[in-house]
């Protein structure tokens, strides 16, 4: 293979990985509106159902394609993926019990900024100042998405919730950085990870939550979507993106998730359209454009 072909293949791989990251962001953005449509389903029961569904469907696909062995991988990458995904959800769901959900969500979405800043210190080859500017614009835009929560006085309970939100961001930043070390590990491993998370979530559910089954066909379809999308394909796509795409660019583009999440809530009538939302749109989309400038230039 010539050098030109190798360069072309490398660019195609990065492009596909970037598209995978954007697919993940799109799927994650639908998580809030879908979850709010299931107010009666306990959160860890939802994790059990969602990741369990992803495991079953993924296992069938791997079996049909003769790739079941991809789930059996060394301990380090398997444990890294499990801890990253499980502890993010654990801290997030527990945090929602202590502090206003919007603020916990905002703090959990500090991970794009953390990721970009960490890349700035760890790499001098791929880093560009546009990534920092895009991340800062995205952070400011995300703040404009914050509603004024009533009764959100600073209490010890709120502090615990805020701390858990920050821990979400730290966990996901570390996972995204460390996961790049296992670029040679097949993405099919994530199917097994989904199965492990489902089992642990089931244990937590039976220990602390009541079991409430879906009440109608709409709730069943929503759970099926969550298992296939935000709790299924999304993590496989993010796994591929973190191993092959530009992490600085991915960190900046990830601010599109809270923006799109808010837009879906507005369209579904679960959140009001405000001037703050318009400003957020301009800042977050503008930040994404700034962050992609180096890629467009290349």
UniProtKB/TrEMBL annotation:
GO terms for cellular component: membrane. InterPro entries: EamA_dom, EmrE-like. It holds the Pfam family EamA. Residues 21-145, 160-292 form the EamA domain. SUPFAM superfamilies: Multidrug resistance efflux transporter EmrE (SSF103481). The chain crosses the membrane at residues 12-34, 46-64, 76-94, 106-122, 129-147, 159-178, 190-208, 220-240, 247-267, 273-295. This is Permease of the drug/metabolite transporter (DMT) superfamily (RhaT). It comes from Commensalibacter communis.
